[in-house]
Amino acid sequence: MQILVRNLSRETTEHDVRLQFREYGRVTECTLVLDKETGKSKGFAFVTMPEVEEAKVAIKELNLTMFAGSKIRVKFAGH
């Protein structure tokens, strides 16, 4: 299941996001979206968790929580 994580701090790294989601299960992919010109984070990422139940728990537990100084929004991203 692919998860969209929004409102990330610009200083948050892909590794930080991956570690946060690993607490809820296996993460097969994590992509922090970067600005092509500056190379800096755009403030959102996609996380793939193959186990649907683990992903649902991660979404429920992490949505609207504080992460690295920002209140993040976490939801199902689609396919």
UniProtKB/TrEMBL annotation:
Query: Which SMART domains does the record match to this protein?
Result: RRM (SM00360)
Q: Which InterPro entries match?
A: Nucleotide-bd_a/b_plait_sf, RBD_domain_sf, RBM, RRM_dom
Q: Which Pfam families match?
A: RRM_1
A GO molecular function held by the record: RNA binding
Query: Where is each RRM domain found?
Result: 1-79
Q: Which domain of life is it from?
A: Bacteria
Q: Which PANTHER family match?
A: TRANSFORMER-2 SEX-DETERMINING PROTEIN-RELATED
What protein does this entry describe? Answer: RNA recognition motif domain-containing protein
Q: Which organism is it from?
A: Vibrio chaetopteri
